[in-house]
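INTERNAL TRANSFER SHEET
From: sequence group
To: structure group
Subject: 6-phosphogluconate dehydrogenase, decarboxylating

Please process the attached sequence and return the structure record in the designated field. Keep the field labels unchanged so the import script can parse them.
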Amino acid sequence: MSQHDIGLIGLAVMGQNLVLNMANNGYSVGVYNRTTSTTDEFTEGNAAGKSITGYHDLKDLVANLKSPRKVMLMVKAGPAVDAIIETLTPMLDKEDIIIDGGNAEFNDSNRRTAEVEKSGLLFIGTGVSGGEEGALKGPSIMPGGSKAAWPHVKEIFQKISAKVGPNNDIPCCEWVGEAGAGHYVKMVHNGIEYGDMQLICEAYFILKHALGLSNEELYDVFSEWNEGVLDSYLIEITRDIFSVKDAGSDEYLVDKILDTAGQKGTGKWMSQHALDLGVPTTLITEAVYARCLSAQKEARVRASEILSGPETKFSGDKAQFIDDVKQALYASKLCSYAQGYVQLNAAAEEFGWKLNNGDIALLWRGGCIIRSTFLQDIKAAFDKNPQLENLLLDDFFRDAINQAQPGWRRAVSTAVELGLPVPGFSAALSYYDGYRQARLPANLLQAQRDYFGAHTYKRLDKEGTFHTDWIRERKTP
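Return from structure group:
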């Protein structure tokens, strides 16, 4: 039997589509699934006639791989990955490569890189974004781990990835960094995705409830938005959603869907690590909390019958307000990406990773959920200044925010006056206003901490650390 270019373990839909993608690009693939019937159904079905061979025994799969052997795992993140690595390790030779393509937590990839390298093997933890369709037609791929492994998988990964550029020849796949860097970048991607989706939902909610726009009108608004600076995959699919009617009726499907949002944890991971790093990733954290609040459906229904608020009808210039909401969405998105890159920089410093922020933006231009037109502007910003500490300081982003500010502020203040929740828009605006202040009220906070806990403080006019006996020095009431 001829030897395979790569082996893949885990034949759920994402795994199957990646295998088909590899075969369609000229690679021979050996596959294995714990449930052997799944392997047989795949090889006899969608994989029939292609350069794909199924195995019922892992040893047989490993024995039929070209050296250095490359085995990709597409199984549920967590203990299952560790179990398969433990089983595979004795079967592999020095410098063979284990690849985890699942949605792993980056700390697990940090640990697995060290453990696999200690056994003489190489490890890659790679983010794969684009869903089922992306896996088949070309995903965004974000590999990290053992750098020595990259030359052996580069051709396969870049060939099966999405392509962008004038000639459609720039792969959305490049080496990210060592250890868990690949999965960290994927986590940040997913966090930005959480933020983008929340912001779009807030824009929809305002237009629907403040202006009373119909789904047909919403379709037209989002169609127009997708032609300009907001051009992106998520705006495009949102437009499409407004056109779909419920089967067998004349009513729109989106209005029939229960308003409780699910999540798989990556947004939460990003927020948790932002707290560990001490960086203010506020918008994405608010997007996570918004999903948590949506899940409290029964409590919200009860509260809606007790708690009151203002009327939610807008009486001003309708066209102007639609544009204000557009500006709020755009400016907030820019803040979301800025926060994401601040966290990437903080993580790179924490773990000693040498991340190329411009290249990371290119990884997201195709195949993934957050692909959008201004990712090229992010690339240009970091090409101009690789040490840029915040995207908001780049000329393009500064000017875009300045132009959007009046509408952004009007949209947020109007939503507040009408009693419509906009946690994403307002978190982004508060972050922007806080970041542009040379002086914040934390001086008072430090005084409070020193008053009740003797935590000390520093001064603007003197070097050193100080403590005041506030009770003795205070004015007696």
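Handover comment: The chain has a mean pLDDT of 95. The longest strand covers residues 122-129.
Transfer complete.
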